[in-house]
Task: structure prediction
Amino acid sequence: MTEQLQLDLAKALAHEEALVFDAFDEDIALELGLLIRSKATAPIIVDIRRGEELVFFSAMPGTAPANADWARRKRNLVNRIHTSSYVIGLWQKLGNDLVASMALDPRDHTPHGGCFPIRVAGAGLVGTVTVSGLPQREDHKLATDCIAELLGIDLGEARF
Result:
């Protein structure tokens, strides 16, 4: 089990290194949000933010308010730590519980996969994309696969 977690961690960290935008605006957010929604195989919500500004939101039929709350909690953690919620969750499973060690309220921060930092070259973290509704690894995969497709990046060996 630990070996699979470490493999996923290496891949998820590679996603963060590779998936960097040249620019990010409302049009790109719309294109990304619609792409994620079009590839969803089950009801999800998609929440895309530039800073705290909501630039795309979609709740598919079959989702519930709890999905949006999960997205909020994932996003809060990513904004605090500046790494994907899936990576933070893998660290926790491997023995490094940042939520506890930083005394973060678990009602407002959760290390469950699905929120990915939007980085722009030369600017760093500018926002987040969050998927909620699938198992956490699949939430992360859907977000990163769609970002890679939009950016024309082949994740190669880092693909889940």
Observations:
- The chain has six helices and five strands.
